[in-house]
Structure formats: structure tokens, C-alpha cells
Amino acid sequence: MKVFAMPLIADLPNLAGVGYKPQHLADILADPGAVKWLEIHAENYMSAGGPPLAQLKRLAETFPISCHGVGLSIGGEQPLDKAHLARLKHLIGWLKPAAFSEHLAWSTHEGGFLNDLLPLPYNMDSVKRVSAHIDQVQSTLDVKMLLENPSVYVAFASSTMDEITFINEVVSRTGCGLLLDVNNIFVSATNQGYSPEDYIDNFPVKHIGELHLGGHLADSDEHGNPLLIDSHNNKVVDPVWALLGRVLKRTGPKPILIEWDNDIPDWPVLEAEAARATRALETAR
Amino acid sequence: MSQLQFAKALLDSEHPAPKDLINPKGGPAGKRFDVYRNNVVLSLSDALADAYPVVEKLVGEKFFQAMAGVFVRMHPPKSPILTQFATEFPDFLAAFPPVAKLTYLPDVARLERIRTAAYHAADARPIDGTYLAHLTPAQMARAKLQLHPSLHILSSPFPVLAIWQKNTSAPDIAIPQGGQDVLVARPKDMVEMRQLPTGAADFLRALNEGKPLGEVIEFCEKQPGFDPAENISGLFEAKLLINIKTEGKTR
Questions:
Q1: Residue B247 or A154, more confident
Q2: How far is CA A257 from CA A242, B149, B151, B190, in A?
Q3: How many CB pairs under 8 A join A and B?
Q4: Closest chain A residue to B72, measured at CA
Q5: N or C: which end of chain B has fewer CB within 10 A?
Q6: What is the pLDDT of residues A185-242, one digit of tens each?
Q7: Which residues neighbour B107 within 8 Å (Cβ) at sequence distance 6 or greater?
Q8: Chain B interface mutation, best of A56, A125, A221, highest count of B Cβ atoms under 10 Å
Q9: Which residue of B has its CA nearest to A188?
């Protein structure tokens, strides 16, 4: 296991943050309220110039920034895109974010980007491939990255281990940190028919550098079984807040992010979600 | 499972879901796989609508969504940077039979595409016009004018700027007859557009190719109605001139 020069994992405050949306810029600068840090999607800030980069530079003077990649395709069967890694290195170089995270998922095949976080079977082949990719990311970017647990809708006949065993294997091989998305636990556990409480009780919490919360949509499959979809388009539901409480009992205070990427609300609605996360953190102190 | 099979099935509903995918009871994934299919096509269709709002308005939301479904399956993004997605869309529209009668539509899409490119182009600081006045006529003829990196030109046989304006900020605008040369640039924070006078499109393109000013003016003056002084002062006024190179020196 390599020790990385920049332990970015430690630099986000144990307070509430939100995913940054440009339509909230004026509100954030006027009064961020409970929001003490911001997360950006790395791929939105890879252009040569323009107002989005200027806005981010301005925000980074005031707020700790978490840089969240959505396009590396760490779970991909194909080699990582070196040009994309170089773009990430450039962004991280000037932005100096307080954390860098990516997903336990894949999104690219044969050079085509599918714009979704796609699932992979949990077996030793996947452990080796994901670990090799994380090694490459961490050594190229010279950061310790956080790996996020996914929302999944299907299972794989070729899986030989559960998600926590898989994550433990990858952490022990790479030394990466973890981003625990509590909504994703609820979505995946409901879709796969396992207990979200057991998942939390067994999760390797000492590696957590950041927590995510978000909204989802409830649907059902053709057999009438529940099928939750990770849509990030509404409020965090009460059962997910309850699961957050269970996580915080194990971890103590951690940086908590509210993700709201679709049907984006006015600032006060989003800020109120961050305020609720702040109250949950106060209970955990 | 190969991810190639997964990716093919995502974009082609005729292509079955990979057999390795199952529901929690071990049966076929069925509708659960369709969630991924929907996510991919709908998220990319939304990204397409965000990039081409005026095209969407011209054809209507419902038609646009259906057309987007065809487009995104044919041209999935080549990179995860979605601001660069769908550069093929104008050419796709030009070859898509259901919109063949809307002959102006591909150029409206081209205008929207270069607006996006200008928005995300490199930043640069404009210079003021006084420097040019210090040059001798011979130096001026050999000077190379470097234009703002966000600058794009669209020469259309349609009144494409007026069509764009009518469908955004100026619904009452009269649509003129004939084509328009449109300059799109972002000198500071805002993307600006203006209709270019006669010969200006050629003038700007020749400057962007790095030709010396004297040669550019000589070429453009063959066009009746071209006014070199007006075009040069227009560049300063629009804050689009970022450097003047003379005899190896730059300003």
C-alpha cells in the first residue's frame, strides 16, 4: 500500500455541504446559511475558460470544495482514459480541493461515455481491476481518493461476495478512503432485498471521509417488488435520515453532503436540507 | 459479463440484457435493466435539450425528445465532458428526414453550438486601439491581429440570428429576407452576438488564419461595400482584439 503525499480525506469540515449549482451562486454568496462547503462535479470544470471556471475560483476562496468525479469509469473493463486523468490532475492542481471522490461504477465503453453509473459484479476479477484503477488514480493525482458505494438496480449471477466484502478488499489493497452515500444504501438494500441497518453495522466506517444524502424515486418492478431509483430530484426521505443517525452513531460527526441534481429547487429548500443535516450532526457530537 | 454487451443493450432495446444480470430472486433483470436504459437515454436527451434550447422550441418538446432518442443512440458522447457533447447534432439535423422541410434548422443548431463553445472558450484580455495608431503604414500592413479565442463566425443563407432572437429574447422581431453572417464571442462574461456587415466575415476569418493586415484588407476590399476602417474599429469596440504582432514584437 502506498502512502499518498496529500491526505485530502481529512480536509472537509464535519459540517453540512451541498452540491453546487450555478443558479444558486448569488444566494450562496449572499448568505450560505447552514452550508459550510460545496461539492462540484469535476467534469463541469474542464473547459479552457469561461464563467463556470471563474465562479468556481471565486467560491473556492470562501468555501472548502469537494471535487466529485463522475466520468473516470473506475469499474470499467477498459484501461482508464489517460487524457481524462490528466484533465483531473490539472483541475485538482489549481483548485486544491479538500477531497476527491469517484464511484464504484463504470460509465465508459470503447471511448463512448454513457452518462450513468453502471454496476459491476462483485468478484475477485472486479476487485483486481478496480484496485488497479484506484492505484493508478491515486498515484497519478497524488491524492488519497474516496470511493463511493453505488445505487444498484440489478444483481449479477457472477458475483461471489457482498458489497461490503468487496469494498473491504479494495480498501485493503489500495489504501483509498470511502464516501458513504446513505441514500444509496437505502436504494440498493431495498432493490436487492437486504437490510440497510446490517449494511451500516458492518461497513468499515473508519475509512469514511464524507457522507452523501439525496432523494430518490419509488417505483416497482414487473413482479410488484419495490424498485427505488437514485434520481437526486427531491428531498431526503425520513428512513434515510434515520439511517444517517445510525451511521453517525458509529462514525461521530462527518462531512455531510446534500445532492440535488435534477428538478433543482430554490436555494431555501436546499439550505433547509443542509440545516437538517447540521441538526443530525449536533445530535452526534 | 462483458461491459460491451451491457453497453450495446443500453443503447439498443432490440439487444437483450446480459444474462449475467438478475433480480434479487435470481430471475432475469427485466425492468431493472430498463432503469439503466432510461437513465442513459433520458439524461443524454436532457443534456441535448439543454445544449439546443432554440431547436427544441422550434420543433416542440415532444418531437425533440423523440428525435433526441434517435440522436443519442447514434452519437453517444465521446467524453465525460458534456459541454462538448452533441457537436454532431447540426449535421444530424441536416440529414434527418422528418425535419428536412425546416431547412434553416441545422444553422440554428450551429449557432447554438458555437454559443456553447464561446461560453467555455479560453479567457483573454482585450487591448485598446491606441497602439495601432503608433504604427507606420508599413508596420500596419505587416501586423498580425490576434482575435479573442471565443470568437466564432457563422455564415448562413438564412436569417439565423433573427430566428434565434425571435425564439428567445425578442419575440416581436421581424425576420428579414436573406442570409446573415453572425459573429459570436464572449469578450467577458456574456456571450454576445451581432450581425456582421458585408465582407466582415471574410475579414475576421482571414485574420484568424494569421494573415497580415495589409493582405487581409487587400483581399476584402474586392468585395463592394467593405469598409476596412469600420471593421478594425469594430474589433476594438467589441473588445475582440487581444494582441497585435509586428515584426516579431507583440503588444
A1: A154
A2: 16, 37, 38, 31
A3: 135
A4: A114
A5: C
A6: 999 999 999 999 999 999 999 999 999 999 999 999 999 999 999 999 999 999 999 9
A7: B90, B154, B156, B157, B158, B160
A8: A221
A9: B24
If DSSP codes are grouped into helix, strand and coil, which group holds residue A177? strand
- What CATH class has A16-284? alpha beta
| pLDDT tens digits, B200-237 | 999 999 999 999 999 999 999 988 889 988 998 888 88
Torsion over CA: A174, A175, A176, A181 (sign): positive
Higher pLDDT, A147 or A8: A147
8 Å CB contact between B47 and B80? no
- The DSSP result for B166-209, as a single string, is HTTT-TTPPPPSS-EEEEEE-SSSS-EEEEPPTTHHHHHHHHHT
Report DSSP letters for B6-52, one per residue: HHHHHH-TTSPPPTTEE-TTSSB-THHHHHHHHHHHHHHHHHHHHH-
Find the distance separating the first CA and the last CA of chain B, reported in whole Å: 60
CATH 3.40.1360 matches B122-251:
no
> What is the ipTM score, two decimals?
0.92
**Is A281 in contact with A253 (CB distance < 8 Å)?**
yes
Tell me whether residue B8 is exposed, middle or buried, using C-beta atoms within 10 angstroms of its C-beta: 0 to 12, 13 to 18, 19 or more: middle
Q: Is B243 helix (H, G, I), strand (E, B) or coil?
A: strand
Q: State how beta strands A16-19 and A256-259 pair.
A: parallel
Q: How many Å is the Cα radius of gyration of chain B?
A: 24
Would you tell me how many other CB atoms lie within 10 Å of the CB of residue A183? 26
Contacts of B22 (CB under 8 A, 6+ apart): A154, A155, A156, A157, B28, B29
Give the distance, in angstroms, between the CA of residue A126 and the centroid of all CA atoms in the same chain.
20
Q: How far does the CA of residue A74 sit from the closest CA of chain B (Å)?
A: 13
Distance, in Å, from the CA atom of B64 to the CA atom of B56, rounded to the nearest integer, reads 6
Q: Give chain A positions within 8 Å (CB) of B39.
A: 115-116
Q: State the helix-helix crossing angle for B3-11 and B31-51, rounded to 10 degrees.
A: 60
Interface test with A, best of B3, B10, B190 (most A CBs within 10 A): B3
CA distance B144 to B134: 15
Domain boundary assignment for chain B: 1-102, 122-251
Q: Dihedral of CA A241/A15/A233/A68: which sign?
A: negative
